[in-house]
Predict the 3D structure of the following.
Amino acid sequence: MAERIDVGLIGATGTVGVRLAELLAGHPWFRLAEVGASTASAGRTYGAALSDLGDFPSLDDHTLGLTLKTLDEPWDSPLLFSALPRGVALATEEELAERGHLLVSNASAYRMDRDVPLIIPEVNGDHLGLVTRQSERWPGAIVTNPNCAVVGLTLALAPLHRAFGLDRVSVVTLQGLSGAGRPGPAAAEVLDNVLPFIAGEEEKLASEPQKILGEFAFGEVTPAEFKVSAQAHRVPVAHGHLMAVSVKLSQPTEVKDIEVAFQNFMSEVADDHLPSAPERVLEILDDERRPQPRLDRDRGYGMTVTVGRLRKCEALDVKFTALVHNLVRGAAGAALLNAELCRVRGFMGEVGR
Ligand code: NAP
């Protein structure tokens, strides 16, 4: 892995795209070589477009000097990270896969497509095998990461699913503002307030975990069978999605056994030494005031999911609080980790031009 490979980033000026560019700065395997955005931004240098958004000291002069392209222009990099809005992704990711690119996408457009892997490497890296099914549809490939809240929820559920089986899950989310992308809700709407509806979010929470925790055999994924009831809220927190989770397990289980299952959770990619994989994918806290977004979202450089307040549930079996950094583990870091997995699993040689 001595030579860095050139990668492109589409949706580079968005909330997730900028964070991905920052994570790619100094990445040992990938070098950001091309950036793209809407026609409103195309033609500007990346630095000029970002100057409207703030200061990004980690981005070097080469990156800031890149010219933003449209998606119709030719792209040279075999690997393209996508941080496009769903509607745009639906129309263009397939076309870019037809042009031979490997798309590593944050968008929800293809997550539930039966030929497209929906990956959290530590949990279901084996689902990457779905990519071979795509060869009949296009010469490239699409690999997706889950919705930002789903990443945190599913990482917290995975040890319980493995050890005891899941029957039913209830989750109430308190989601940070950066999860809404730009421009996000108006300040007057969120200050001193909580918004009890996020379009499309509850549907994703209710369906993506089963695909991720499903079984990959004979070239396809059979979704896990538990039900998720989700209630999503937007709260005036900058970054971080906090979740109150209650779970009914498939077998009688003591809280202390659940704690052991959390502590013993083994990442499926522990031996792959992926550069963006955190030392601890799950951190379990026994301080009843934690996790909190401001205090805990940056654990593991934003890649660790924090679980706390584990206790018996009066209605189901057990309940706890989980926290995920929506922009890192829930989006940019998730995509980067997926790309690293693609590389070590040899999927970069199979697609691309
Ligand atoms: P965002 O802040 O709204 O950024 C959207 C990006 O897409 C911008 O770079 C924008 O370019 C570009 N774009 C818009 N229309 C385009 C078009 N027609 N052609 C080319 N580029 C276009 O959104 P975001 O929050 O970063 O989210 C990006 C994706 O990641 C979404 O699918 C979202 O659901 C998903 N996601 C977001 C989060 C999160 O926490 N925010 C977490 C997980 C997944 P301009 O600047 O030129 O408009």
